[in-house]
């Protein structure tokens, strides 16, 4: 039995990675949500809350970076399909231990946008770390994961 016959459509008969052909799938409205967290020091948390991060509005930069990243996912993830990204919302909420990041991506297309949501969170986190690294060299991104998806043949899923 070949890898593609065993239910791994991203592998050809020889086990080589390939892009799945989605041209025969129906266009449906699809949405994916992802989350992540940037752990940072009390000094960074205070600076984010007070708006005194030396490099500027770190949360705004993170949100814009996440939106931009979602739209460029196929350039970064080799087997991700180029999809029409119709909406991206990136939220950055400061808490006592750092910043919670959440991204929601919507499309009307033939395949889902889980990778776009994950990419949005990951790059928002990277941008935030870049903005605060002068205050906290230990800042780190954790817990990047899909938390929900809807639409498509497999239907809805929630973590």
Automatic annotation (TrEMBL):
Domain Molybdopterin cofactor biosynthesis C (MoaC): 19-152
Lineage: Bacteria, Bacillati, Actinomycetota, Actinomycetes, Kineosporiales
Organism: Quadrisphaera granulorum
Matches recorded under NCBIfam families: moaC, PRK09364.1
InterPro entries according to UniProt: MoaC, MoaC_sf, MoCo_biosynth_MoaA/MoaC, Mopterin_CF_biosynth-C_dom
Keyword Lyase: yes
Protein name: Cyclic pyranopterin monophosphate synthase subunit MoaC
Gene3D superfamilies linked: Molybdopterin cofactor biosynthesis C (MoaC) domain
Domain of life: Bacteria
GO MF terms, alphabetically ordered: lyase activity
Gene Ontology terms: biological process: Mo-molybdopterin cofactor biosynthetic process
Keyword Repressor: no
Pathway(s) this gene product operates in, as recorded in its UniProt entry: Cofactor biosynthesis; molybdopterin biosynthesis
Keywords: Lyase, Molybdenum cofactor biosynthesis
């Amino acid at each position: 039995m070949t890898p593609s016959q065993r239910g791994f459509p991203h592998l050809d008969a020889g086990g080589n990675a390939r892009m799945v052909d989605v041209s025969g799938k129906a266009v449906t409205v699809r949405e994916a949500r992802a989350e992540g967290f940037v752990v940072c020091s009390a000094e960074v948390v205070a600076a984010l809350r007070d708006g005194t991060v030396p490099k500027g509005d770190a949360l705004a930069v993170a949100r814009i970076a996440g939106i931009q990243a979602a739209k460029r996912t196929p350039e970064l993830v080799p087997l991700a399909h180029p999809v029409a990204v119709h909406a991206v919302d990136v939220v950055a909420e400061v808490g006592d231990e750092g910043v919670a990041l959440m991204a929601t991506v919507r499309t009307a297309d033939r395949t889902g946008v889980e990778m776009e949501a994950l990419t949005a969170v990951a790059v928002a986190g990277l941008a935030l770390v870049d903005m605060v690294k002068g205050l906290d060299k230990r800042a780190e991104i954790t817990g990047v994961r899909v938390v929900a998806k809807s639409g498509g043949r497999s239907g809805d899923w929630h973590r």
